[in-house]
C-alpha cells in the first residue's frame, strides 16, 4: 500500500530511463556512430557491446565514452559525441524513440494539478530539448535543465541551480540512476526511484523514499 504524500510544488525528472525509452533511439545511433568512426579510420576493431553504453546512461558524456572505449583518445571521444548526437537528432526527425507507457498522460495530470514540471538531465542541451519537443511534451514543462547547457559537473549542482533559479522550496526528484538519488537527497528533495528501465546496477536506488515499477504509479503517492 502506497504512503501518500502532500502534493509538491514541483517535480524534477531525469530524461533517459525515466521519461524516455532511450535505447529505442540510442542503439541505432550508436551503431551508426561506430560505423562512421571506423570509416574515418579513427577507431578500429569491433563496436563495443551495447551494454557498455546502456550501463553508462545517466553519466556525463565524458564519463560515458571513457567507459565505452577507454583506450581511445579524448579527441576520438569528442568526435563520437558529435556523431552520436547527429544520428540521434536525425532519428528523432525520422520518428524514432518512444516514451515509457503512461508518461504523457501522467505528466498532463500533474500539470493540471498545478505541479511545476522540470527536466534535469546530464545529457546535451540539443538532445534534451529535441526529445521533449519531438514527443510533444514541451508545453508541460516550465524549463529544461541539462548538464550540456549549464556545464555542471554533477546532477547535484544542476538540481541546486534549478531550485535556486526558480525559488522552489518543496520538490520531488524522479529518476532511475544513483546520480538522481544523490541529487535529490543532497538537495533535500523527496526522491522517487524509477525501477523499470533496466540500466541500473545493484544498489543504485538505495536511499530513495519511493520506488515505482511503472511511471503511472507516481500518481498513487499523491494525496
Automatic annotation (TrEMBL):
GO biological process, one term: DNA repair
One Pfam entry name: HAD_2
GO CC aspect terms: cytosol
GO molecular function, one term: phosphoglycolate phosphatase activity
Record-linked InterPro entries: HAD-like_hydrolase_sf (IPR050155), HAD-like_sf (IPR036412), HAD_2 (IPR041492), HAD_sf (IPR023214), PGP-like_dom2 (IPR023198)
Positions of transmembrane segments: none
PANTHER family to which the protein is assigned, alphabetical: PHOSPHOGLYCOLATE PHOSPHATASE
Name of the protein described by the UniProt record: Haloacid dehalogenase
Higher taxonomy: Bacteria, Bacillati, Bacillota, Bacilli, Bacillales
